[in-house]
Amino acid sequence: MGVAAIDLLYWRNVKQSGAVFSSVLLLLFSLTQFSVVSVGAYLALAALSATISFRIYKSVLQAVQKTDEGHPFKAYLEMEIALSQDQISKYADKILLCSNTCMKELRRLFLVQDLIDSLKFAVLMWLLTYVGALFNGLTLLILAVVSMFTLPVVYEKHQAQIDQYVGLIRTQVNSVMGKIQAKIPGAKRKEE
Asked: In angstroms, how far is CA 31 from the centroid of its own chain?
């Protein structure tokens, strides 16, 4: 995650973080009421309305003041936006690496290379069936965005207390997992 994204999530610039947070949240709430196609079309129409209005305003202003400033978006029109072959190759390599890692991990889990890891995955999938029954994907995405903009700040302000409780929970989970592993035959983990 880049420095700019981290600054947004930690609200280093409140106006910028607020603008991004409210824009993303407004977009997601719009998607709960309208289809993706409608929201995309309305956003495109809003952007076109703004740029066309600004272009007409500048043209009228130039005619009235008899100036020769030129096209108001000239700098943006001349800007290079094409992706280079190196950039495409770099992103394709990252996607390929991520896909291969994901497929290997899923194969390992589904073919029960490690019984404990496969059981953990099964419990996670079982829990996700309940989450899926309660929330749709868009609601989960809204919750994720709200969490991304609130949890880092809360953690930063209360780091000592949170770390203490997380340590206690981790100790309890490890204790329970050790007891479960001891009772399941063939589930002993290799010493790492």
From this structure: 16
Give this prediction's pTM: 0.62
Buried b (16+ CB within 10 A) or exposed e, 16-44: ebeebbeebeeebeebeeeeeeebeeeee
Q: Residue 62 half-sphere exposure, CB side, CA atoms within 13 Å?
A: 12
User: CA separation (Å) from 192 to 114, 120, 188?
Assistant: 14, 19, 12
Query: In the chain, pLDDT over 90 holds for what percent of residues?
Result: 54
The whole-angstrom separation of Cα 10 and Cα 152 is 6
Q: What is the DSSP letter of 80?
A: -
Determine contact, residues 69/62, Cβ cutoff 8 Å. yes
Query: How far is residue 111 from each of residues 28, 101, 125, measured CA to CA in Å?
Result: 37, 15, 15
CA distance 141 to 126: 20
Q: Which amino acid is at 85?
A: Q
Q: Which phi and psi (to 5°) does residue 176 adopt? A: -65, -45
Q: What is the pLDDT of residues 67-107, one digit of tens each?
A: 888 888 888 888 888 888 999 999 999 999 999 999 999 99
Residue-wise pLDDT tens digits, 170-179: 999 889 888 8
- Are the CB atoms for 152 and 8 separated by under 8 Å? no
